[in-house]
């Protein structure tokens, strides 16, 4: 059984919300996509990625879903965005980052492109389980930049991969065992631009997934949320539905 809670907000600066998300707990699938700011049709791009995954899996039973199926959906979205760029946008780029979490039986699977993130809180310790496809992250890997300098660097907004940008799409993936009590956070970079990992971890530890999600969004808005902010919290539990605390059930998302 998986509990989840999703929230999205356009922030205090952007006129539209270019983030999109998918929440399918009955299939064990959650997705966050972030349309590329400053490019054409970022909101259309992110929603196209989300719709592609939903259409690929919504008619299936959990046991019929495969990792390759999810990858193929992203590849199809990449091709569709390339066509849209050529035929409707006069060659202007329409792109999106994406992070996908799929939990099935005793394993979790991650797919990602770009700098949206997935964190895992396990045994009261949080770690980022995706790796940003960004210019500053490459510089950190090459020893040219310290990790603590990355967020404030002038190139912090430059990503090196996105759905829809190139003819070929390089998708990273990770598979590992899932444990009862694991809490995953999927988020667009609008969240981690405003809150550092220590603050995020402290907030997730402080309450159930609904309280934690609301607190994360509130904290980012208090700091003027320069970008759109989207987060999904997913808790893996084997507790019987009838025994679940009413305060920790999935509730509808709200948007502004």
From TrEMBL:
<dbReference type="InterPro" id="IPR015655">
    <property type="entry name" value="PP2C"/>
</dbReference>
<dbReference type="Pfam" id="PF13672">
    <property type="entry name" value="PP2C_2"/>
</dbReference>
<protein>
    <submittedName>
        <fullName>Serine/threonine protein phosphatase</fullName>
    </submittedName>
</protein>
<dbReference type="InterPro" id="IPR036457">
    <property type="entry name" value="PPM-type-like_dom_sf"/>
</dbReference>
<feature type="domain" description="PPM-type phosphatase">
    <location>
        <begin position="3"/>
        <end position="236"/>
    </location>
</feature>
<dbReference type="InterPro" id="IPR001932">
    <property type="entry name" value="PPM-type_phosphatase-like_dom"/>
</dbReference>
């Amino acid at each position: 059984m998986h509990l989840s809670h999703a929230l999205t907000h356009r922030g205090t600066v952007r006129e539209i919300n270019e983030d999109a998300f998918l929440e399918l707990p009955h299939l064990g699938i959650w997705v966050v996509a972030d349309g590329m700011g400053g490019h054409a049709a970022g909101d259309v791009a992110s929603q196209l990625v989300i719709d592609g995954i939903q259409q690929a899996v919504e008619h299936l039973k959990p046991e019929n879903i495969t990792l390759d199926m999810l990858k193929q959906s992203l590849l199809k979205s990449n091709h569709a965005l390339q066509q849209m760029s050529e035929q409707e946008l006069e060659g202007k780029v329409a792109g999106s980052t994406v992070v996908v979490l799929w939990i099935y039986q005793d394993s979790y699977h991650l797919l990602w492109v770009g700098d949206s993130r997935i964190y895992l809180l396990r045994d009261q310790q949080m770690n980022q389980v995706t790796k940003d496809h960004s210019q500053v992250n490459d510089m950190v890997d090459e020893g040219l930049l310290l990790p603590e300098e990355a967020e404030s660097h002038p190139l912090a907004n430059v990503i090196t991969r996105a759905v829809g940008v190139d003819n070929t799409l390089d998708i990273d993936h990770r598979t590992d065992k899932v444990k009862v009590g694991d809490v995953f956070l999927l988020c667009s970079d609008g969240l981690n631009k405003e809150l550092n990992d220590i603050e995020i971890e402290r907030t997730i530890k402080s309450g159930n997934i609904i309280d934690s999600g609301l607190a994360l969004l509130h904290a980012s808005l208090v700091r003027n949320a320069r970008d759109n902010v989207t987060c999904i919290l997913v808790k893996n539990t084997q507790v019987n539905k009838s025994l679940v605390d009413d305060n920790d059930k999935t509730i509808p998302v709200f948007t502004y």
